[in-house]
């Protein structure tokens, strides 16, 4: 057919379409990336819509819907009946040309007048109502309730609005109406409104598509891909503004002379080139221009060019749709062309129908090609091979054209076979969606407020931290002074370790490391002098709960059993080696090899131990076994072992810090300040046992109800209060308590407290470290929660992550305040203006949590500005330190013997 000579350029094969898909994918990437976004044709505008409705939205909302073929005002009543039902009352208002092409003030006054009329009609003037504003034009947003118009499109061309915030313009106009009181909570694009409207009925809907007067699409993008918006958590809806695809020439090879002619005659030449090949505002015109050319070349209407063919906009979308109707298409064509005074022949009608079909097919296929790019991106974001999803659609062309929808669906099916797509027509327009966005915004705002209230109690402003530093300092002094030592809660236990390693240590030593996550037995070989080095062999043994909380005898028999296995394994059962015992619990020592357990902490509660000398108990257990003999030379706290281990590398290391299952710190104190130990010369290491800080109630004012819950549920209520706010054994439990409270408030997990959430200890601190890892995408957070039997939404996981961060940050800042007190004391001890000191640190919380150590160090810097504190991670654990102490003790002992 001769007509095809004209139309072949408008026929797009699937290969060409796949190429368009690839081009559009590239454009999307440009629009999202910080450095290319300013010049990108496809703007990829963040909408600040982060979540889909979850069915708890409720209340009355107003919605304005401007920019499509009609201006609608809606009154949306959402019912929190769990059935996601809502009622809609609407009224349409004309958009006269003089308004669409007048000035800004007139436009917004007109909108406000219509709203006032609507509220009058619906008797809503006495109500203060939230409003969602669907404004179907490209707007740059920095928050939900604001939007700066980038450019008018379609048939709008209002002066003085471009580059201004349309929400404040609307507010100004509304303020002129004293009798209406509305709060514009959200500005959304019609694609976003459509996605939300459909999302209300189908939670899988994550794409919004408009094919009407104009065309555009939005979809839920991963935050980590949106460079222009802070944060990597969750997703945000991106308004692609795909109408401008090709404005940078990317589609010039596909644009025909008719497209170029249409663009030159449009209100915005060179702009919205993709839209001008697709949307209903332009398709009729395209058909006219093609028919005009064919007629001029005598291929139609006997070459007689009538006025209608020369008149712009004479052929409209409704004509094209009517001419393509299945049955009455041909008769419609005759009728329409006759009305246009073209007196068509039968062939003319068939040819004109053909032109319409080719033009509208191209439109559907181009849409499909761009939509295929979005669907592919969604599937790749989710790392799925196959994906099921829903696309919410609205727009006159899609809804009224007899064949458009079918053509679009089939083309999408061919272009992205790995995506199973449900096309869901929007019921009630994007107005309902705008109300849902406003409702979600209000719910999220309320949620945020309540979340912040809940978490506010965990925030420690600088003033409080300085106070805590000084309170810790006072407790340190209480523990050192003879007259207050007995009542002191921070026990400041002398360790009889009087010096850090000096490199002369040498020999083979055994070490036990009990009290942390793992129980280790170690053989440590220390060389001194030029070949100075430490070699270690160790084996980790489990301490079953029933042993930790059994009898003292069983515990020490278990320890000796492990020792025997290790000696067997190392083939050194016969060697009566000196042993250093790292015992990470508060022990009152009278000498380096004597330690009376003051009280169990962490998960230990073995009977008949408290008040007993743990070295004696170990010796008795060895005797009971009667298989080997050892020389237990020293019992040390893990903080002391850690200080020594690091001191071996850095002589400036005079502080040992553990932030692990438990928390504690030791430091080298001047003998003259240790009033309960004879002598004023030199130094001795003090095991502060700061875990008990606050057991006298001095920090109760910062303890929250969650802390009290955790304490009451612990093995030692009322004890170790500081530890229970700062250490790995308890942080997960604090988080769990907060999550339960937030769930009870309906802020989480849809208010449902699952069995898992009720289970004590289910939220281990390692999960905090996992969840708080930067750039951990929310799906992975949800995966962690799923492992805990917690089915969560995106929002839930964002909140869980915030709760984890609040709890661990508080812990780190509390530890920082305590440590600042210790280094400040050291500085004053030395009477220097500036102190340089190293802290040896260990413990899973310090080592594995993504932010704990950094926040702790920053807090020390803040609260001890005259101290240059370096932190040294203990690579080998405190076992090495225990061996070094044993070596020193052994050497001193031998010297003493001589
Ligand atoms: C109905 C939606 C409205 C959107 C319109 C687009 O409620 O927000 O702008 O569809 O279709 P049109 O009216 O331009 O054909
Ligand atoms: C490793 C040390 C050990 C200490 C532990 C504390 O070798 O002495 O008790 O760190 O950390 P946790 O294992 O409790 O996290
Ligand atoms: C506008 C979009 C809108 C689309 C559909 C385009 O002209 O730029 O913001 O979503 O029309 O109404
Ligand atoms: C113990 C300390 C120990 C700390 C770290 C606390 O519970 O009381 O002795 O240093 O945990 O393991």
UniProtKB/TrEMBL annotation:
<keyword id="KW-1000">Mitochondrion outer membrane</keyword>
<keyword id="KW-0067">ATP-binding</keyword>
<dbReference type="GO" id="GO:0008865">
    <property type="term" value="F:fructokinase activity"/>
</dbReference>
<dbReference type="InterPro" id="IPR043129">
    <property type="entry name" value="ATPase_NBD"/>
</dbReference>
<dbReference type="GO" id="GO:0006006">
    <property type="term" value="P:glucose metabolic process"/>
</dbReference>
<dbReference type="GO" id="GO:0001678">
    <property type="term" value="P:intracellular glucose homeostasis"/>
</dbReference>
<keyword id="KW-0547">Nucleotide-binding</keyword>
<comment type="similarity">
    <text>Belongs to the hexokinase family.</text>
</comment>
<keyword id="KW-0324">Glycolysis</keyword>
<keyword id="KW-0808">Transferase</keyword>
<keyword id="KW-0418">Kinase</keyword>
<dbReference type="GO" id="GO:0005741">
    <property type="term" value="C:mitochondrial outer membrane"/>
</dbReference>
<keyword id="KW-0021">Allosteric enzyme</keyword>
<comment type="pathway">
    <text>Carbohydrate degradation; glycolysis; D-glyceraldehyde 3-phosphate and glycerone phosphate from D-glucose: step 1/4.</text>
</comment>
<comment type="subunit">
    <text>Monomer. Interacts with TIGAR; the interaction increases hexokinase activity in a hypoxia- and HIF1A-dependent manner.</text>
</comment>
<keyword id="KW-0496">Mitochondrion</keyword>
<protein>
    <recommendedName>
        <fullName>Hexokinase-2</fullName>
        <ecNumber>2.7.1.1</ecNumber>
    </recommendedName>
</protein>
<comment type="pathway">
    <text>Carbohydrate metabolism; hexose metabolism.</text>
</comment>
<dbReference type="InterPro" id="IPR001312">
    <property type="entry name" value="Hexokinase"/>
</dbReference>
<dbReference type="Pfam" id="PF03727">
    <property type="entry name" value="Hexokinase_2"/>
</dbReference>
<dbReference type="Pfam" id="PF00349">
    <property type="entry name" value="Hexokinase_1"/>
</dbReference>
<keyword id="KW-0963">Cytoplasm</keyword>
<dbReference type="InterPro" id="IPR019807">
    <property type="entry name" value="Hexokinase_BS"/>
</dbReference>
<dbReference type="InterPro" id="IPR022673">
    <property type="entry name" value="Hexokinase_C"/>
</dbReference>
<dbReference type="InterPro" id="IPR022672">
    <property type="entry name" value="Hexokinase_N"/>
</dbReference>
<keyword id="KW-0472">Membrane</keyword>
<dbReference type="GO" id="GO:0005524">
    <property type="term" value="F:ATP binding"/>
</dbReference>
<feature type="domain" description="Hexokinase N-terminal">
    <location>
        <begin position="3"/>
        <end position="200"/>
    </location>
</feature>
<feature type="domain" description="Hexokinase C-terminal">
    <location>
        <begin position="654"/>
        <end position="888"/>
    </location>
</feature>
<keyword id="KW-0677">Repeat</keyword>
<dbReference type="GO" id="GO:0004340">
    <property type="term" value="F:glucokinase activity"/>
</dbReference>
<dbReference type="GO" id="GO:0005829">
    <property type="term" value="C:cytosol"/>
</dbReference>
<feature type="domain" description="Hexokinase N-terminal">
    <location>
        <begin position="454"/>
        <end position="648"/>
    </location>
</feature>
<feature type="domain" description="Hexokinase C-terminal">
    <location>
        <begin position="207"/>
        <end position="440"/>
    </location>
</feature>
<dbReference type="GO" id="GO:0005536">
    <property type="term" value="F:D-glucose binding"/>
</dbReference>
<comment type="function">
    <text>Catalyzes the phosphorylation of hexose, such as D-glucose and D-fructose, to hexose 6-phosphate (D-glucose 6-phosphate and D-fructose 6-phosphate, respectively). Mediates the initial step of glycolysis by catalyzing phosphorylation of D-glucose to D-glucose 6-phosphate. Plays a key role in maintaining the integrity of the outer mitochondrial membrane by preventing the release of apoptogenic molecules from the intermembrane space and subsequent apoptosis.</text>
</comment>
<dbReference type="GO" id="GO:0006096">
    <property type="term" value="P:glycolytic process"/>
</dbReference>
<keyword id="KW-0007">Acetylation</keyword>
